């Protein structure tokens, strides 16, 4: 009997992360959403050419749309049609989830930001979050806490 050889999985399914969002916002609730993409966008994401900095979610006609994300087209894959790397992309959510997100954004200071893009099986998913903006002193506290944790780990390693 011959045993089946297993394919090696890549180290991470993450395509792109929005690290700036975790610095600028208090993350309150996370949610997973599908993303409606064109064929050239999927090929570009397989090559890791996606970016989420300054991306957020808006609502039009009862639908959720991702604004500000960039997917750079591959030269070889997008030769015969016009590509727009910064187009608005539709988020695939249930109606109840969309209404809950809309209610959250109507509260003062809340917004919906995209945290990461990742592969789930063969589909691209977007992790979005209900977030509240941080004040400048909150950002300084975050930096102080991060520095303290770094120093603490150095002291513990030295022992």
Total of helices: 4
Q: Tell me the β content.
A: 25-35%
Query: What is the percent of helical residues?
Result: 25-40%
Q: Can you list the strand order of the major beta sheet?
A: 1-8-9-2-7-5-4
What does the overall shape look like?
Answer: globular
Kindly state the number of beta strands: 9
Helix and strand composition category: alpha+beta
Report, as a whole number of angstroms, the end-to-end distance. Answer: 52 Å
Low-confidence stretches: none
Mean pLDDT: 86
Largest sheet: 7 strands, antiparallel
Task: Give the ordered list of helices and strands.
Answer: EHEHEEEEEHEEH
C-alpha-based Rg, rounded: 19 Å
Helix and strand topology:
Elements lengths: L13 E4 L1 H6 E11 L3 H8 L3 E2 L4 E5 L2 E5 L2 E2 L17 E4 L2 H12 L3 E11 L2 E11 L2 H23 L1
Antiparallel strand pairs: 1-8, 2-7, 2-9, 3-6, 4-5, 5-7, 8-9
Task: Provide an overview of this structure.
This protein is α+β, with helices and mostly antiparallel strands. Helix content is 31%, strand content 35%. The N and C termini lie far apart (52 Å).
Quick summary of this structure?
With 159 residues, this protein is α+β, with helices and mostly antiparallel strands. It contains 4 helices and 9 strands. A hairpin with a 2-residue loop joins strand 4 and strand 5.
Main features:
4 helices, two-stranded antiparallel sheet, globular, 35% strand, 159 residues, alpha+beta, 7-stranded antiparallel beta sheet
